[in-house]
Specification:
about 230 residues; about 20% helix
Length: about 230
């Protein structure tokens, strides 16, 4: 299995470290159920996977299929609605009768460097989303992205850290079933560290960086319940 190229590994670590510092600071200032992404909308959605050939060694990406998923669209900082904010897109994918995997995307650039940089957006459908961190797969490091198509849907794509995006599916939201979720903790808590899709594993350094953020969130939830 190929390792992450040093430059792109460093770029991802910088982005992850920035995210960790922001998350920890906000958690201290706002110790609620969701220190970041405090309010959003949870809705049902459908993913139609067309698959990839040649594949990347991840069955969920390589194989065609349909998934009924949960999606949460949110604003990371919780700034006034009229202000740009880093947008979040969380997807919960069933992986078994009682298991699931969580994918978390944030608004970033789309280029080979920009895909590692968090960028604010004025609305949820004007900017590309990426996972920011590369996953470890059988074919090497792999990033995921969700590109809005302007029709209430997102094209799901994957790429190596320096590669071209390859579309493998389409996410369509069911806006009419949306449920507002806020700092009171209503709605699911997405955790990509604990809940992973088979074949999409974290590199140890990426898992450590992201785990720090989610550990802060779990601590904040426990403090809030005390």
């Amino acid at each position: 299995m190929r390792s992450t190229p040093p430059f792109w590994s460093s770029a991802s670590q910088v982005g992850g470290e920035v995210l960790r510092v922001i998350f920890a600071a906000v958690a201290r200032l706002r110790p609620t159920e969701k220190p970041l992404h405090p309010r959003g909308e949870t809705t049902g959605a459908t993913i139609r996977r067309t698959g990839l050939s040649p594949g990347v060694g991840v069955p969920w990406i390589d194989e065609a299929g349909v998934d009924d998923v949960q999606v949460r669209v949110s604003r990371a900082i919780g700034l006034p609605v009229s202000w740009p904010d880093i947008r979040g897109l969380a997807i919960r994918v069933p992986t078994g009768s009682e298991t699931h995997g969580d994918l978390l995307f944030a608004t970033t650039g789309r280029s080979r460097l920009g895909r590692f940089l968090l960028l604010p957006a004025r609305d949820s459908s004007s900017q590309t989303y990426s996972t920011l961190f590369p996953y470890r797969t059988a074919s090497g490091p792999l990033l995921l992205a969700a590109h809005p198509d302007g029709h209430g849907s997102f094209n799901l794509a994957c790429a190596s850290p320096q590669g071209v995006w390859r579309t493998f599916g389409r996410l369509r939201l069911e806006a009419s079933t949306g449920v507002a979720t806020g700092a009171d903790g209503v709605g699911p808590s997405f955790d990509p560290v604990l809940n992973q899709i088979p074949g999409l594993d974290y590199y140890p350094w990426a898992g450590s960086l992201r785990e720090g953020s989610y550990r802060a969130a779990r601590r904040s939830r426990r403090d809030d319940e005390a």
